[in-house]
Amino acid sequence: MKIIDRIKKGQEEGRPLFSFEYFSPKTAQGMVNLQDRIERMCYLGPEFIDITWGAGGSRPAATLEVVSNAQKVYGVETCMHLICTNNPLDKIDKALN
Description:
The chain is of the alpha/beta class. It has helices at about 5-10, 30-40, 60-75, 90-95, and strands at about 20-25, 50-55, 80. The relative contact order is 0.18.
């Protein structure tokens, strides 16, 4: 289900909605820690989680790995958050493609 549809459904049901935002890890240990944290926090029932694409010098591939694992392993809807500040247009275009 699309995130906007989840939000609309929650509003129609009159229930509180929330999500969590995570930054992609820069190291292998960071990836392990993040996966563990996502697993624990998904028990709280967020509508979706937001993974920031390439934040703070993290690799874009790490974002894709986190998103893929979150959807496949934990069944949580995901949104990739692209940071455009201080990024050249060609890098943003590449990420969007």
